[in-house]
Design a protein that fits this description.
By secondary structure, this protein is mainly beta. The chain has eight helices and 43 strands.
């Protein structure tokens, strides 16, 4: 069976469990190894002993621990292979159904626990059986954090075999901070906070209240617990807010009585899920209000606030769940957001910034805004917009994009965004957009384009995009667009343009293009409202803390008629989106992707 470590250490032991069977289970060989891939260990598996011997019996209704694995050092954040050979047929095995991990079985009944190759393991399966946990000897100051929850903690809609659960991501942040604490995932898919699962759904387990002693208090070295549970009580169980709140109060008291700290997570929205009703959502809101106000818990992590759609707070932001799923279970991106909410990761060292010249526009005439950017090899890509603030997989447009000052707007007044960029000689070109998301051959616009901060939009309200750029003296100019894709002579707008990240769009929803730009000294992003005649009002602070952000672009990514913002955090490489909530006010940043 393949399992994942959180923290590393010089010794390890396994715990085998047999809680449901009416008879004992014999084990005549067990081993542990680091996984290379699939069923292949990275080195010879190490024998596990039980009281000095290779064999053991897991008593019915009980459990058994191995001795420490002699000579086996557990690496942090790695997959391990635990193999057990059962010489007898078994019934009612203890298993964890939603492992999101491929494990492997040998069908011939022989002992292959010490095999160094995958040949005998011909059958893949997606659960864990009899293995209750792996304990790792902690470094000084170490201990265990227990994540107690349901399917959202068990893995949600994360990628199989990728270990992208929020618990895994949180453990990686602890490692990055040098913490010796390990994290154990006690999430069970379908689990309830207040009610045991019926026999027909036994894999969903007894309630969190009834398994708290077993799954939390009995964990070796436990120091704290994070509770993230309650949606199944609301969505399927019809529980009241007072019932859920009483259960949280009870668990917090039991944790404190055992000397543990107790953290609780608010419950994210589930609008769009088949079980959703406004009445159930009101129960969720009441539970979340209780958590934000109560002194029962030591800390609240606000998963609701972190994941909800700023424009529709009763549902998740679309980037945090997969398009075909149930609007409840979070994907890899959403789980990373949860982990970052629990603990902000340190800025990674040596971040690779992969894309540049990020621009946005409707390049297909679909009414949805796409992204375009160039990678380090000079390949230009387009990411189709979905209209909900998310984007599809990249589509290659062309290689050899050696141009700079790339900007996008509809320069030909055909409803399709075009591209403008300059080459190394300072010649400015226009690529007219086709409805297919591709572009015509370049047309020369002008030479001597010795300008920077080039951006474009319809600043004169004539339905044709204009250009704005600044010269080396800091003077900002406007070139009014003509319907033929050409431009009038420049008009001076202002001097002293000591700003960067200059971007244009309609941020107020009045149909008139505005400017935004960053003051590099303060990291403040400012807004200049357009008048519709090629002039602008005075600047107004829009957002602070924009210092680490680059690749700023804007468009109506949410289809509201108001421009939203997208930018990359250069300290992490994450691309983020700020949704326009009206009046040029913006939401918290929403994580779109890493590795930009």
């Amino acid at each position: 069976m393949v399992v994942h470590s959180s923290v590393g250490g010089p010794n390890a032991r396994i715990r085998l469990v047999n809680p449901f069977a009416s008879s004992d289970v014999r084990v005549d060989h067990a081993t542990i190894a680091v996984q290379a891939s699939g069923a292949t260990p990275a080195g010879p598996p190490v024998d596990l002993r039980f009281g000095g011997g290779l064999q053991t019996v897991i008593p019915h209704g009980g459990e058994v621990y191995s001795d420490d694995a002699s000579g086996f050092t557990v690496p942090a954040d790695r997959n391990l292979i635990v193999s057990i050979h059962l010489p007898d047929a078994v019934s009612s095995p203890a298993y964890h159904a939603y492992a999101l991990t491929s494990s492997y079985a040998a069908a011939d009944g022989a002992d292959h626990a010490a095999d160094q190759g995958p040949g005998a393991f011909t059958t893949a399966f997606d659960h864990w059986a009899y293995l209750g946990g792996i304990d790792v000897t902690a470094a000084p100051g170490g201990g265990t954090i227990v994540a107690l929850g349901d399917s959202q903690t068990d893995g949600g809609a994360t990628t199989k075999d990728a270990n992208r659960r929020w618990v895994n991501d949180y453990a990686r942040t602890l490692l990055a901070q040098g913490s010796p604490l390990g994290v154990v995932d006690m999430g069970i898919s379908g689990n309830s906070l207040t009610a045991d699962a019926p026999d027909t759904d036994a894999a969903h387990g007894v309630s969190a209240k009834n398994r708290f002693e077993r799954d939390v208090l009995h964990q070796p070295g436990v120091r704290s617990v994070i509770l993230y549970e309650g949606i199944n009580d609301i969505a399927y169980g019809g529980a009241s807010d007072s019932t859920i709140e009483a259960a949280i109060h009870d668990l917090a008291g039991r944790a404190h009585g055992a000397g543990l700290s107790f953290t609780a997570a608010t419950i994210p929205p589930f609008g769009g899920h088949p079980t959703y009703t406004p009445a159930k959502d009101q129960v969720r809101a009441c539970v979340n209000a209780y958590l934000r106000a109560t002194a029962d818990v030591d800390r609240v992590v606000d998963f609701d606030q972190a994941t909800r759609d700023p424009l529709a707070p009763e549902q998740l932001f679309a980037g945090y769940y997969n398009p075909a799923n149930d609007h409840l279970h979070l994907n890899d991106n959403g789980n990373q957001v949860l982990a970052d909410t629990v603990l902000t990761p340190p800025a990674p060292a040596g971040v690779t910034l992969n894309f540049a010249q990020t621009v946005a526009g409707d390049f297909t005439g679909s009414g949805r805004s796409d992204l375009i950017a160039v990678d380090s090899t000079g390949t230009l890509y387009r990411w189709p917009g979905h209209g909900d603030g998310t984007f599809g997989a990249p589509v290659k447009l062309t290689a050899g994009w050696t141009f700079t000052q790339t900007t996008a707007a509809d320069f030909t007044s055909d409803g399709i965004a075009d591209l403008v960029a300059k080459d190394a000689t300072g010649t400015l070109y226009l690529w007219s957009g086709n409805r297919s998301g591709t572009f015509s051959l370049p047309v020369r616009l002008t030479g001597g384009w010795n300008f920077t901060q080039t951006t474009a939009a319809d600043f004169t309200s004539d339905g044709i995009a204009d250009l704005v750029a600044k010269d080396a003296t800091g003077t900002l100019y406007l070139w009014s667009g003509n319907r033929s894709g050409t431009f009038s002579l420049p008009v001076r707008l202002t001097g002293g343009w000591n700003f960067t990240q200059t971007t244009a769009a309609d941020f107020t929803g009045d149909g008139i293009a505005d400017l935004v730009a960053r003051d590099d000294t303060t990291g403040t992003l400012y807004h200049w409202a357009g008048h519709g005649d090629g002039t602008f009002g005075g600047r107004a602070a829009l957002l602070t803390g924009w210092g680490p952000d680059s690749q700023t672009t804007a468009s109506t990514f949410r289809g509201t008629g108001r421009a939203d913002l997208i930018a990359r955090d250069d300290t992490t490489g994450e691309l983020r989106e700020w949704d326009n909530t009206g009046g040029a006010a913006f939401s918290r940043p929403l994580r779109i992707t890493a590795g930009w």
